[in-house]
Structures are given as C-alpha cells and as structure tokens.
Amino acid sequence: MTLFVKLQEGRKRYQKERSRKLQELVDEFYKIGIQEIGGLSVRERFIAGVALYWAEGFKHKDESRLGFATMDSKMAMFYIRWLEECLGVDRSKLVFRVTANLYFIDKIRSMEEYWQKSLGVNRDQFTRPFYQRSKQKRDYRDRQGEYHGVIRIHVRESKNLLRRMRGWMAGLAME
User: Is 108 among the domain residues?
Assistant: First the structure.
C-alpha cells in the first residue's frame, strides 16, 4: 500500500467520523428546538398563525377572502388546524388549488393526489390547477426529490375574516 493510498483512507475515515459527529450535533439541536417550543397555548397558536399569514398569506388590497400558499405540507397543515381551532373555520369551506410550473403539466394529477392525501381533504375541494411559465431552469424538487407544486388554500366567504386579519397583522406590526 502506497503512502498516497494510506493518506486517502485516513482522510475518508476522518471525513466519515466528522460527518457522524456533525449529524449527532444537528440531531441534538433539533430535539432541543422541539423541547423549547413545547406545547402551544391557544393564544400562542393564534399569534403564530397570524404571523404565518403575514408572511405567506394573500395580502393584495383587492383580495376578497383569506388565502395562503406554500410548498410545505407541514406548514399547510398548521395553517388548516389554525383556521379550524383559532378562527372556527369549517374544513368544508376550504378550496384548494395546485400551482405548478408548466413543465410539470403531465404530473398535475399526482400532485393533487399528494396534497389531498397530505392534508386529508376531499378531491371535490380542488379547483382547476394553475400553470406558471418560467424561463428559468430551476430544480423544483424537495429533499425527497419530489416536486408537488404549490398548494393555494382559500376560505370561502371569508371577507370579514380577511378584514380582521389585516387588523391582527397591524397589531403585530405595532408590538
């Protein structure tokens, strides 16, 4: 065995051990983060939902109902639970729409099925998908190598809730 081969093997062992230790550290901080959040009170969940809407909700001045968009299924589930638990919105009032790059037009049914299953909603709550044209070549896959598009969640007959939401967001901004 040459010196070069021995050095390469040593580097590989070192990198493997370094990666293992880093993963242990990442896992430890992940668990700490979960513990630090703990259980949320109703008020904490309410405020978290308002902040989430402020970040990801539809805020255009001509908007006439609550709307929210995300690629993250856990975020979408949090938002739906928030609507139900904090605002008293019945799940049957929700309307879903998948938005995807035009490149994925042939995969839209599987995307809708993904969202339907992930969110536990009925197929008849989905409206026709929306396709975006993009000149950019982008990698749309998530960590599992899948692209599910963006889910848009609207609440039927929610103009007054939207008006209140604007006040809640203003209240957070004044804090």
Answer: yes
